[in-house]
Amino acid sequence: MAKISVLGAGSWGTALAILLHTNGHEVTIWSALEAEVAMLNERREHESKLPGVKIPEDIKITTDLEGCLVDPDVAVLAVPSPFTRSTAHQMAPYVNDGQIIVNVAKGIEEKTLMTLSDIIEQEVPNANVCVLSGPSHAEEVGRGLPTTCVVSSAKRETAEYLQGIFMSPVFRVYTTPDMLGVELGGSLKNVIALAAGTADGLGYGDNTKAALITRGMAEITRLGVKMGAKAETFYGLSGIGDLIVTCASVHSRNRKAGYLMGQGYTMEAAMAEVKMIVEGVYSAKAAKSLSEKYDVEMPIIEVVNQVLFEGKPAADAVKELMLRDKKVETPLLPWD
Would residue 189 show up in a list of annotated catalytic residues for this protein? Predict the structure, then answer.
């Protein structure tokens, strides 16, 4: 049995806490919000974010950050990506050397273009930072539906240790050394999901969505490889797997926000309607900046930014993508 602190009491943090508890571990959930902690302790259910999923009585829920970081075997950082840096900064004074911190959020910091693991390592340099990602909606993990993810660490033994911590009959975990690829896949797919949702909102069909998923994956892979990640990672769970589920699922907040924009909502109104952090909106500018920094063509990312921040009509964005210059799909393959 391991002692595990889950930092962040949203839907994903709560679902993982329940999974880890079911696996036999001693689990504490931390939230910075006193009202949220009081509500969860009283109702043992996150009715707005994870309705119908009961939190076991022996999972402790607290606002005591220092207490959560007194010698846990694993600290799971599950706050939304815009709060990763501030939370890591608060954690730093209490983290012991070599403490395993598993980041489970997905995003890229707009101003610095840093991945979330890079941010955590900068704020908590004495920690052993790892990543868990993949096609894993909290609504389904919380209900115990079969799910598969991937864990990445700089050290194989740490990845294998975490694999054992998280793995269960309904939660299968693979390992990989490519932490950069895992994080880029998990972050950039949210931007493509906004585009897929927008296409749904415009009334387009499965052909359109398949095109966005396929060509979106090509963009993500081109950028990732240019940045030093491995192409194989993007063919896996944290790449195409996560992209498919985020573009297609009714649980996807990014797809839902895109759908509303396709229906005529502004970006701000769509985010307000979703009522949760829409990670793709926060990652879109960073993705565009990365494409410019590494000189990688990313037309879908480009038009998503135009729709989000420049007032471009969504239908015009789709037309622009369709009317681009002729291309070869596989430029590295030679003709006979």
Answer: yes
pLDDT value of residue 317? 86
Chain segment 38-81, per-residue pLDDT in tens: 999 999 999 988 999 999 999 999 999 999 999 999 999 999 99
Rounded CA-CA distance 197/91 in Å is 36
| Catalytically annotated residue among 189, 256, 285, 288 | 189
- Between CA 56 and CA 59 the distance in angstroms is 6
Distance, CA of 151 to CA of 115 (rounded, Å): 16
d(CA 104, CA 92): 18
pTM equals 0.93
Residue ranges with strand state E in 198-254: none
Cα angle 41, 278, 271; round to 5:
95
For the chain, helix, strand, coil in percent to 5 are 55, 15, 35
Using alpha carbons, select from 94, 77, 100, 96 the residue that is nearest to residue 30. 77
Beta bridge partners of 151: 132, 175
Extract the tokens encoding 62.
């607290």
Which residues does residue 61 pair with via DSSP β-bridges, in sequence order?
Answer: 29
